[in-house]
Amino acid sequence: MTTTAPPGTAVTDEFRAAMAGLAAGVCVITTTGTDGSPSGLTVSTGFSVSVTPPVFGLCVDVRSRTLPAVLERGAFVANVLHGGAQDVATLFASRATDKFARTPHRFTPGGLPWLAEHSLRSVECRIVQTADAGDHVIILGAVDAVHAPAVAGGSALAYVDRRFHALPRS
User: Fold this and answer.
1) What is the residue extent of each domain of the chain?
2) Which residue ranges does the record assign to the Flavin reductase like domain (predicted)?
3) What is the CB-side half-sphere exposure of residue 134 using CA atoms within 13 A?
């Protein structure tokens, strides 16, 4: 039998503290709504699921205003941010309504927003599976394309101890 600790309990608070110490890469997930308007959010839960075939996974809070657009479109771009993109990560983690007006972007051949200037690489995916998991939705996407910016290299952006950190690349 599985039990779930209610929010604000010692177990929930201890778990949150433990996860704060787990370093995670930072991605901005971008998509377009059914009306064609771009939408995006920051996640620290992007992960490789499989290389053969290539599958990318992420977890999105059920309260996210971007989640409906991702699910309706059935596709997204995971922009893996470089170390200098902390402001972009913060902007896309906010509830601002003008995120794309304030961020240079272009569109992939598939018609999805791509943050080329702020990404080490970007992975364009089509959703193949979703699962409810507590207060989040797990989304798995088959990788259709990988986009590289004109200028490659640089550090990677990570989130640990509730702060952003630029990690040197070897």
Assistant:
1) 25-158
2) 19-166
3) 10
